[in-house]
Amino acid sequence: MSDPRALRPIPPGDAALALPALRELRPDSPAIDSVEALQAHLHAVGPEGYRLTGAFELGRTEAVAVAGWRVVTNLWEGRTLYLDDLSTLPDARGRGHAGALLDWLAAEARRLECVALHLDSGTGEARHAAHRLYHAHGLSISAHHFSRALGEPA
37: helix, coil or strand? Predict the structure, then answer.
């Protein structure tokens, strides 16, 4: 039986296809207040290499899962694929979409000559299912992430 899932890029002009899944992950982000806000955000971060890849099911227009990612180069490891955002619509969870995106991202990282795939994930009980998924797809906890809120830019 063929896989009814399709993975494909979501360009800024098709931002509406990613909006529902992104809202599940980041409901308070002003960048997803509207399709226009998301398109503006995607154009702003495009030069940084940020892009979206979606998982689509037959019969649905919007992506049921979305990965927002970029390639970065850092001093300590070199060329790395960094996964900023990974989200699945609630009614599509448990069907392998996020796992398929993680596997695709690992293959894409290799194709782009990256030495690793990285992501940060929040902590707490609400994130346990996501952490199990990451572990099941070969990711391990390798660091603590520290941050400091600085407020609005002057």
Answer: helix
